[in-house]
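DM from R.C. (forwarded with permission)

"hey, sorry to bug you on a friday — could you get me a structure for this? deadline for the figure draft is monday and I only need the backbone to look sensible"
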Amino acid sequence: MLISPLMSPIVGIGLSVGTYNWPKLISALRNFGVMVIISLISSYLYFLISPLKVPSAEIIARTEPTLLNVVIAFVGGFAGI
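My reply, with the result:
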């Protein structure tokens, strides 16, 4: 869910590059930087107050991507395009 706030700036970057709109690119890059900072701060605060201190087997399994994860990522990317 931390990727969701980043989708609009990423789409804005792609759209501004595709249309050669440099002022919009600068705005999209600025928004992207702000969203990255907000995402990092919110995830840090969440895990600071979260009772989860030891990663479970399910969380560890998500850190090792499989071929299915790659296929899902490509399908999601094509859907975004």
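R.C.: lifesaver. The radius of gyration is 16 Å.
me: no worries. The chain has a mean pLDDT of 87.
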